[in-house]
Write a structure and sequence with these properties.
Strand content: 35-45%
CATH architecture of the largest domain: Aligned Prism
CATH topology of the largest domain: Vitelline Membrane Outer Layer Protein I, subunit A
Structural class: alpha+beta
Number of domains: 2
Largest sheet: 5 strands, antiparallel
Number of helices: 5
Order of helices and strands: EEEHEHEEEEEEEEEEEHHHE
Radius of gyration: 21 Å
Length: 275
């Protein structure tokens, strides 16, 4: 039994999104020659080096941390790579950039911390105005993951709001347009942000996030255990089951295939499940 639906890496930028082709597995692959929406297209052009060099080239730049994340995932024995913390450079009104820290977990139980380059930009008017400069951090607790980022922006990024499965944290000011601190909009908790891309124009101009589906993380253990039981390769102990364990046993063992699929679809935020 397998799950499929929305499992691609997704880039969300300016409330438009782009699905990376499924063959994006190495740092040399780029989503090129593909038609995408307005600001996403502009961002992709920036981060893969096809920038317009006709104006303000001294102030302009960009970054793409997808390759860094994929390299961490490809290390021998690595079982998971999660965001550990994000350090944001900002003033009272504007955002200058960020640095991202990852925790890698390995099959032997060990962990290690890696971090990206400083994506911090300090040139021009916005870099020297807006009040006191400082570095603020969001540190992720065990079991916490980053689901969305929302920004307020005009010419540059005024504010970044990080929304996790447990809280929201904002850095920067209230200028510009956009969602920013407005968390009244529903948050898609079915996806987990794994990397960032961005452009600079003196300071941080635009920020995008690359996310992956959490569906398998949510329901994969149910699927695997049911398959093992059906193959007589695993059993569930019936003695002294708690109420919660009894519900899980009913889900895995006693329910018919169609009902099982419907429940997984609910647990997996609308994922499609097939035999």
């Amino acid at each position: 039994m397998s799950s499929h639906n929305n499992n691609k890496m997704i880039l969300r930028f300016d409330r438009a999104s782009y699905a990376f082709p499924p063959e994006i597995t190495t740092t040399d692959d780029h989503p090129s020659n593909t038609t995408v929406n307005n600001n996403v297209y502009s961002l992709l052009n920036e981060v893969i080096g096809q920038r317009n060099h006709d104006y303000n080239t001294h102030y302009r730049g960009g970054f793409n941390d997808l390759g860094f994340y994929l390299d961490l995932c490809a290390k021998d024995g690595c079982t998971s790579v999660d965001l550990s913390s994000i350090h944001v450079h900002h003033s009272n009104e504007y955002c200058m950039g960020m640095k991202v820290f990852y925790q890698s977990t390995f099959a032997d139980g060990s962990t290690s911390i890696s971090f990206t380059q400083d994506h911090v930009y300090e040139m021009g008017y916005y870099a020297h105005s807006g009040g006191r400069r400082r570095v603020s951090s969001i540190i992720f607790a065990d079991g916490e993951y980053l689901a969305e980022i929302r920004t307020r922006q005009g010419e540059i990024t005024d504010q970044i709001t990080f929304i996790t499965n447990r809280r929201s944290v904002s850095f920067g000011g209230n200028g510009g347009d956009g969602e920013g601190e407005d968390t009244s909009q529903p948050v898609d908790l079915s996806r987990r942000i794994v990397a960032f891309v961005g452009t600079a124009n003196g300071v941080l101009e635009r920020l995008g996030a690359i996310s992956i589906s959490r569906n398998w993380e949510e329901v994969g253990h149910f699927v695997i255990l049911r398959a093992l039981i059906e193959q007589n390769r695993a059993t569930l102990q019936n003695s002294s089951l708690s109420e919660g364990d009894a519900v899980v046993q009913t889900l895995i063992v006693d329910m018919g295939g169609d009902v099982f699929k419907r429940i997984l679809s609910f647990l997996g935020h609308g994922m499609k499940v097939s035999d």
